Amino acid sequence: MFYRPEDGHGLPHNPFNAIVTPRPIGWISTRGADGGENLAPYSFFNAVAYEPPQVMFASTSAKEDRGDTKDSVANIRETGVFCVNVVEYAARDAMNETSGPWPAEEDEFTRAGIARAECAEIACSRVAEAPANLECRMTQIVKLEGAHNFVVFGEVVGVHLREDCLVEGIFDVTRFNPLSRMGYRDYTVVREVFSLKRPGEK
Asked: Are 111 and 153 in contact (CB under 8 A)?
């Protein structure tokens, strides 16, 4: 089949998210200017550069108590910092709980029973037991087409790695099994990896 998004797809559910899969999940923690904390998962997330290391995530909807966006972007506008927490399979239920449309004053760490720790380089909490945390300083927020579409870019200024995930100097994802987003209500998990050499490599 072929369809133009502007004309609609004619299917029971939008297939777009199921086409671009799997997508890593950025579990974004932020702290507002008032000290209130937020934790929310974003599946439009990825690393975008090595030197300096940089990441991005996109927020695509809004809440009535936050105007044109959601809590994460609103807090980052105020403070200029955020933390990306890697989601392991064991944390799937807690992550899902933090995805709800809770009021701005709701603390998702508390709501989902998630232990927190203070970041080292920025004024923000992180998921204490996450396999890895990326402390970020926002570099820019880009408005995309659409009423509530914003992309947040950040430079990674601090990295936490859980010790049990380091094996002979390698960050081993099979030690914690990263959770990834599929389409619809579906997720997948990384349990197996393989390597390929680039052309010309020995």
From this structure: no
For residue 89, what are its two tokens? 């399979």
> Measured between alpha carbons, how far is 75 from 104 in angstroms, rounded to an integer?
10
**Can you list the domains of the chain with their CATH numbers?**
5-189 (2.30.110.10)
Stated as kind and residue range, the H or E segment containing 188 is strand 187-189
Q: How many angstroms separate the CA atoms of 117 and 107, rounded? A: 14
| Segments in the chain forming alpha helices (H) | 16-19, 71-79, 92-97, 108-111
CA angle 145, 82, 42 (to 5 degrees): 50
Segment 84-112, tens digit of pLDDT: 999 999 999 999 999 999 999 999 999 99
pTM, 2 dp: 0.95
